[in-house]
Amino acid sequence: MYDAPILGDTVDQKTTKISARDVQVYYGDTHAIKDVNVDIDSKTVTAFIGPSGCGKSTFLRCINRMNDTIDVCRVVGDIKIDGEDIYDKRVDPVQLRAKVGMVFQKPNPFPKSIYDNIAYGPRIHGLAKNKADLDVIVEKSLRRGAIWDEVKDRLDAPGTGLSGGQQQRLCIARAVATEPEVLLMDEPCSALDPIATAQVEELIDELRNQFSVVIVTHSMQQAARVSQKTAFFHLGNLVEYGDTSQIFTNPLDERTQNYITGRIG
Amino acid sequence: MSAGLVILAVVAIATVGFFVGRAKSLSSAGGDIRQLHSLPSYYGQATFLFAAVPALLVTFAWLILQPMFVASQISGMIVSGDIVEGASRTLVMADVRRIANGLDVAVTAGKLSETGIEKLNTASTDVRALLAGVGVAVASDVQQNILAAAKEFRTLTSTLRIAMAVVAIALSVLGLVVALTRIKPEYRARNVSEQAVKALLILSSLVAILTTVGIIASLVFETLHFFQLYPAKDFFFNLTWNPQFTGGSDLGFIPLLWGTLYVSFVALVFAVPIGLFVAVYLSEYATNRVRSIVKPAVEILAGIPTIVYGLFALITVGPLLRDYFAQPLGLGQSSSSVLTAGIVMGIMLIPFVSSLSDDVINAVPQAMRDGSYGLGATQSETVKQVILPAALPGIVGAILLAASRAIGETMIVVMGAGAAAKLSLNPLEAMTTITVKIVSQLTGDTEFASPETLVAFALGLSLFVITLGLNVLALYIVRKYREQYE
Q: Cα–Cα–Cα angle for B289, A77, A98, nearest 5°?
């Protein structure tokens, strides 16, 4: 059922969640992202596609300022979430990241119990008043992560002991536990087998109801299956951005055409 | 012919063998290297090994066995009347060797000829004075019987030396000839040479293992000897340490163990937090520039000789603690104290803890940090709740290694904590440790027959067991940790 692109999906929400203007990113002397302008809608799955090294992950990491942790990285330009400039001096990246969750390429559960992995975010942000509250948050997050049924009997077991696909869903559950508004996913399925990938994709489609999801992927089929909007990056430029159905059936730019038909990549 | 010359001759023969073997292998293949099983130099190496190894092994065995054989021959010549009261047969044998050696020296100095030695007689010559004239001192006047033994010793030794040279060189030549006749294109010379290298590698690792076994064996042997002279129950449970060289000592191990553990504990209380904070700063907060300066600077501490730390304890820390803490608070009068030694030892241990912990913290995958930052955790929350728990087993390993270093430390304790064995809780009082007492029981004029001396071995074995246990525990924890990320 996941093989056919879901091209008919309509985008019902049209409000802009994230808007980027003239974003440039430099790694030392390397100009990694050039003049990126993009408006990402809320309650939408937006896919970033493009060949390796085109800057899609780098741009994703700008949205929650994860690039701040890399010494040589420098970001120029405006990125606004709900109209607020996230690179403003008054914005604390720590608070921003609580609002903009992130799931990484490789599942990275902490070497703690499943329960503590989920409870980590709520604890540091003080989201739970007491233990019972926390229990509720953990259960809700694990249910949203579509992993509750598999782990409900062993919440004290280490998160690192789960299978790869379960670990990734645990990481997604961990990210949604802090109730973010935006969820960034950096190739969340590249380390997973097809069955786990299908589960995670189904999950992403459900998450769209509550969050704006931005997903970086190498798989064009995946982008077609899960996203409503698609952005194509090439050599640090945002080449084309539009509805997924339009990008995959009727691309305007020749480079997009070449990439999705497999001539460059 | 001396042993050195024999070895040199064997090596020379083998080297010739190398070149001849290499040339012969080439000619046996008609000059075409592809016909040979191995490269020509391997044939040379195989020939070298055949010529050198058996001959050298026999030489070394001969060098070890010859003195034993000679001694057994000579000792028959000594009758019980020659053994002075209070001395033993080994002492007389030592005299024989010394006289024989003296005669050799006299010959080289030109004071005596070989025929002169034949005619030498205690009745006509004062051998003791003669030997003293060439710088060899003999304890008592030389008896005729002993002199005869010494003469026999000389002739036997020199005959055997010549025999050794003949056998070794003959063996070397034989090996060379055998190896050369075996050289054919299909001969697997490379395998022979590689087997020899493998044997060398195994031998080297055996040296380390056998040394450990030897050390343990000697400790155990002497400890058992000690427990025959002094009851084990008293050693382990007596609460006083009071050795008397006139006998009737109290040799209780508890006060020393207490001192050791107390000083080590103070050192760790000092070193672990500081070392850990240094590690966290260096691995999580410091920029690369700062790190590249601070890390080597901290590690300099590990390169300071412990005797220098001891001086620091003796002349700086000790008096400082006495004048500003101990005396004003009325807790002690001595500049040597547990606290002095503990603090200085703690300084010494900082790089052990910080360097190992730094490595362990750096080994925590970046993905852990990203995951935590991605959830909106601050840097300190990440360090406290993700990185330190993930690195904890490795950090525990580092602390245990530092602890075993602290327990074995001697110099700082001698100079910082004094030498009084006491059971006390006051950290400003002088105390002492197992290592210090091992040194003090063994230094000076001692004979290895009294419990006061032999107790050092029992102490050493106890110390060894404690540090071995800590090291095994540390290794176990570190290994368990490694399984997590690989």
A: 75
In a domain, A139, yes or no: no
Task: Please report residues of A whose CB lies closer than 8 A to that of B381.
Answer: 124
CATH of the domain at A249: 3.40.50.300
β-strands B250-251, A229-234 pairing: unpaired
Instruction: Give the whole-angstrom CA distance, residue A195 versus residue A187.
Output: 16
Q: How many CB pairs under 8 A join A and B?
A: 72
Domains in chain A, number: 1
pLDDT at site B486 = 40
For chain A, the first-to-last Cα distance in angstroms comes to 27
Give the contacts of B280 (CB within 8 A, at least 6 positions apart): B357, B361, B383, B388
Chain B residues interacting with chain A (CB cutoff of 8 angstroms): 287-288, 365, 367-378, 381, 385-386, 389-390, 484
Residue with tokens 């399925």: A189
Per the CB < 8 A criterion, the answer to whether A30 and A53 are in contact is: no
Is A174 a member of any domain? no
Give ipTM to 2 decimals.
Answer: 0.85
Give the residue numbers spanning the domain of A190.
16-110+180-260
Check whether A93 has a pLDDT greater than 90. no
* Structural domain contains residue A159: no
Determine whether the interchain pair B375/A111 forms a contact, defined as Cβ–Cβ distance below 8 Å: no
- Does residue A9 sit within a domain? no
pLDDT at A265: 58
Pairwise CA distance, residues B172 & B11, whole Å: 9
Query: How far is the C-alpha of B440 from the C-alpha of B456, rounded, in Å?
Result: 9
Residue B297 has pLDDT above 60, yes or no: yes
The helix (H) or strand (E) run that includes residue A40 is: strand A30-41
Taking domain B237-482, whether its CATH number is 1.10.3720.10 is answered by yes
Nearest by Cα to A23 from A92, A94, A68, A74: A74
Contact A69 B373 (CB under 8 A): yes
Which residues from A are below 8 Å from B377, CB to CB? 94, 120-121, 124
Chain A residues inside the 8 Å CB shell of B367: 104, 106, 108
What chain B residue is nearest to A118 in terms of C-alpha separation? Answer: B375
| pLDDT (mean) for B128-140 | 75
Q: How sure is the predictor about B278, in pLDDT bands with cuts at 50, 70 and 90?
A: very high
Report the pLDDT value the prediction gives residue B165, as an integer from 0 to 100: 92
Residue with tokens 């690039």: A67
With a cut of 80, say whether residue B300 has pLDDT above it: yes
Over the stretch B317-332, which tens digit does the pLDDT of each residue have? 999 988 888 888 888 7
Query: What's the token pair of residue A132?
Result: 């019972």
Query: d(Cα B438, Cα B457) in Å, to the nearest integer?
Result: 8
Secondary structure of B296-317 in the HEC alphabet?
HHHHHHHHCCHHHHHHHHHHHH
Give me the residue spans of the domains in chain B: 3-187, 237-482
Confidence at B265, pLDDT banded by 50, 70, 90: very high
Q: How far is CA A239 from the centre of its chain?
A: 20
| Neighbouring residues of B115: CB distance < 8 A, sequence distance ≥ 6 | none
The answer to whether A227 and A41 are in contact (CB under 8 A) is no
Q: Read off the tokens for B153.
A: 């010793």
Any idea what DSSP says for residue A125?
T
